[in-house]
Write a structure and sequence with these properties.
- The protein is an alpha/beta fold.
- The protein has two domains: 141 residues, 3-Layer(aba) Sandwich (Rossmann fold), CATH 3.40.50; 186 residues, Dihydrodipicolinate Reductase, domain 2.
- It has eight helices and 13 strands.
- It has a seven-stranded mixed β-sheet, with helices on both faces.
- Helix 3 packs across helix 8.
- The mean pLDDT is 97.
- The chain binds adenosine-2'-5'-diphosphate (A2P).
- The site of adenosine-2'-5'-diphosphate has 17 residues, from helix 1 and helix 4.
Length: 340
């Protein structure tokens, strides 16, 4: 770092991801001059803890970004669409966790373990996009195999935690579960069906091609991050009654053969990954182990015996940390160290 100290804002500071961004900033090596916490008018005046102090939440307005170097956004797509360009105009670099800017050709979509070079393109619009949580953990885990063997096709099914939907969904799973085990009536407010003791094969809205928006995010974002439109990706995304940690069953067809053992040692030496794979002792990645830490856990690594060049993996990460806040703050660290 150059000795510069940074003014950083968190937009959506009171939300599930925003809160985690604050924790990640506390843990980060970015030298800070000031932090500013922004949310809707509903939260104005609320105090949030930061490094032992209490900082008042301010309402996010058009004037919030004057003097700010980096703004971390996680306040919904509409807010990002409106306020990210305003922040950028004030000379602030926005790192946006919503889907609003991800597929804009002038906005880099970055996972630091995979395509850190793309951060340089922040100069186009002053905005960097953070990928979808399910995409991030998948590309971290498949990146070493992609670089070594090439990938023709990916078939992924996800088992996604409710925290990805936000605070209201965490409360919904808790309240429905509590009601049901006490034989009480429950309310359905967030998802189209009950999430407690259930699995919902719908994340976000359905599109004309029969896939959900979440599924197509995995397709399009994976290709953009690898800068490779030849990769075939088909996804089924499922919401499960888990609070934190997304799990994914991923099948990859590679261009060149790789054995399961080679894949394991490749992954074991790759950044951001922990291989957790000892089936003889019932050891494999679990959401409860992934939650609260930053590594992407990979296990159940085995050859797909139905095709000549295929690998199956079970990939689990904390969707709020590596899937959102940690990835955003890692981008901010590189930005601060190399570019600002
Ligand atoms: P608030 O708490 O004041 O509503 P989550 O994804 O967990 O639901 O959190 C969403 C975050 O985005 C919250 O911090 C929320 O603030 C913030 N937010 C939602 N709508 C707006 C808005 N129009 N302007 C600013 N912040 C918003």
């Amino acid at each position: 770092m150059s000795g510069k100290k940074f003014n950083i804002a968190v937009a959506g500071a009171t939300g599930a991801v925003g809160n985690q961004m604050i924790t990640c900033l506390e843990e980060s090596k970015i030298p800070l001059n000031s932090v500013r916490f922004l949310a809707s008018h509903r939260s104005t005046g609320r105090k949030l803890r930061f490094k032992g102090d209490f900082i008042e939440v301010e309402e996010l307005t058009e004037n919030s970004f004057k003097g700010i170097d980096i703004a971390l956004f996680s306040a919904g797509g509409g807010t990002s669409k409106k306020f990210a360009p305003i922040a950028a105009k004030d000379g602030c670099v926005v790192i946006d966790n919503s889907s609003a800017w991800r597929m804009d050709p002038d906005v880099p979509l970055v996972v630091p373990e995979v395509n850190p070079h793309a951060i340089a393109d922040y100069t186009n619009k002053g905005i960097i996009a953070n990928p979808n949580c399910s995409t991030i953990q998948m590309v971290v885990a498949i990146n070493p195999i992609y670089r070594k063997c090439g990938i023709k096709r990916i078939v992924v099914s996800t088992y996604q935690a409710v925290s990805g939907t936000g605070k209201r969904a965490i409360d919904e799973l808790f309240n429905q579960t509590r009601s049901m085990i006490n034989f009480l009536d429950y309310e359905i407010n967030v998802y189209p069906h009950r999430i407690a003791f259930n699995c919902l094969p719908q994340i976000d809205v359905f599109l004309e091609n029969g896939y959900t928006k979440e599924e197509m995010k995995m397709v399009n974002e994976t290709r953009k991050i690898f800068e490779d439109d030849s990769i075939g990706v088909t996804a089924t995304t499922v919401r499960v009654p888990v609070f934190y940690g997304h799990s994914e069953s991923v099948n990859i067809e590679t261009k060149e053969h790789i054995s399961a053992d080679e894949a394991k040692s490749l992954l074991a030496n790759a950044p951001g990954i922990k291989v957790v794979d000892d089936p003889a002792n019932n050891i494999y990645p679990l959401a409860i182990d992934a939650a609260g830490q930053d590594l992407t856990l990979v296990g159940r690594i085995r050859n797909d015996e139905s095709i000549p060049n295929g690998i199956n993996m079970w990939i689990v990460a904390d969707n709020i940390r590596k899937g959102a806040a940690t990835n955003t703050v890692q981008i901010a660290e590189i930005l601060a160290e190399k570019y600002l």
